[in-house]
What does this fold into?
Amino acid sequence: MKKALMAVMVVALAIGFVGCDIIGGAKSPYYPLAEGNTWDYDVSMTTTVDDSVTLDSSWTTKTEVVGKTELDDGTKVWEVKNEDATSFVEVDKDWVYTYETKADTTEWYKWPNEPKVGDTWDMVIQIDDTTSSTTTYEVVEEGVEANTYADCLKVQVTPEGTDMFDEYENFMYWAKDVGNVKTTCKTVIKTVILDDTMTTTTETESNLNTFTEG
It folds into this structure.
C-alpha cells in the first residue's frame, strides 16, 4: 500500500496542467497546451521527527509540450514530456484524457475539461500487474490566491490508503490559462514507543516558478 500511495503522491505533484489547445476542437481554461509551452516548478520536502529536522531537500522539475502527434490508432494528441516520462494528451468538450503510451487505446487517467466547485472524479493508477490505487479529486473552493496567482481553484486530493497516516492533507491549486501553480501535501504519523509518542511530519510543496508560452 505504501508503494501505491507514494506513486499517487508523485503523480499528484506532476500533473494538473495537462490538456489541449486545438486538438479535438476543444479547449480547457485550466489546461493551456501549445507546442513549446513549458512549466518550471520548485519542489521542497521536509521531514521532522518531533522537533528535529531529519530531511530537508529541494529540487526542480520541468514539463514541456513537445508538439502534436498521433496514437497508434490514429487518435490526435499532444506529446508532453515531464523529466524522464512522456505522456500523450487528448481533449473533448467534457474531459481531458492522458495516455501513457502511443499503443494505449484506453486513457491512463482523465480530468474534467472545465472543473467547478463541487465536482469530484476518480483517477485509477495501475502500479503494477496486480496493484492499482484510486485517488479522489474534489474542487472544494474557487477564487483562492495561491503562489501569487489570484482566482485559483482549490482541489482536494485524497489517495486510497491515507488511513495509514494520523493526518493527511493534499491540495492542488489551478489558475486559468496557466494550469497547476501549487501543490501541497502534509502527512503525520504518530508512533508509540514504550511510554512515549514519536511524531513524524512530512511536508511537500511544489510551486510554479515560470510558465513560458511556446
Remarks:
- The chain has a mean pLDDT of 88.
- The domain at 2-212 is CATH 2.40.360 (YmcC-like fold).
- The two ends are 40 Å apart (CA to CA).
